[in-house]
Amino acid sequence: MNDRSALPAWQPKFSEWVEAAKPFMAEGKAKQAFGIYPWFSGNGDPFTRLSKPASETRFGLITTGGYSIEGEQEPFSPFPSLDATPPRINTIPLDVDRTKLRIDHAGYDHRFAEEDINCNLPLDRLQEMQEAGEIGSIAPNTQVVMGLQPNVTPLIEALIPELVARFKSDSVEAALLVPS
Q1: Is 94 exposed, middle or buried (0-12, 13-18, 19+ CB in 10 A)?
Q2: Which of 14, 18, 56, 153 has CA atoms 20 to 30 A from the CA of 170?
Q3: Rg of the Cα atoms in the chain
Q4: 93 forms bridges with which residues in the sheet?
């Protein structure tokens, strides 16, 4: 899959959208702004079949929940960036004290995540699956980004390669993306 090849056709549409969306955003009307958003469509199939059973596979977790560790990591900005700045990635260790996790993302209702963090950061469920032999293992670090990243260019050119590098360093064989 090479989504970079679709960027040149999409980028002018995004630039036009930014100009049209700015007045809506300034008035706090994100729903109207994103109602005219030019959705990106990549080339090819984004999925690859596992080459071995899940019970023998090391999984990595990515969430767009906008989590940070209170007192240890800078909070994410709760608002989307419209420029080409690559999104920051927070690393959350598997053994993190769950009470120190903070949700910085303003784009979704936090009630369910506050009731059960596993709805968008399923660390406990993955550990249970590992203990039950349903998955081989879990990477020691979860990668967290802020959802609502309208400019896909920095995602494709910077964020995804960085996530791949981090997963390779943790010997991840399959990634689980949990959008928020």
Answers
A1: middle
A2: 153
A3: 18
A4: 141
Distance in angstroms (rounded) separating the CA atoms of residues 46 and 2: 9
Q: Residue 77: phi, psi to the nearest 5?
A: -70, 135
Evaluate if residue 166 carries a pLDDT over 80: yes
pLDDT tens for residues 96-155? 999 999 999 988 899 999 999 999 999 999 999 999 999 999 999 999 999 888 999 999
Strands annotated E in the chain: 58-63, 67-69, 90-93, 101-103, 137-138, 141-144, 174-178
Render 122-152 in DSSP notation, one character per residue.
-HHHHHHHHHTTSSSEE-SEEEE-BS----H
Q: Which residue carries 């009731």 as its tokens?
A: 115
Amino acid in position 120: N
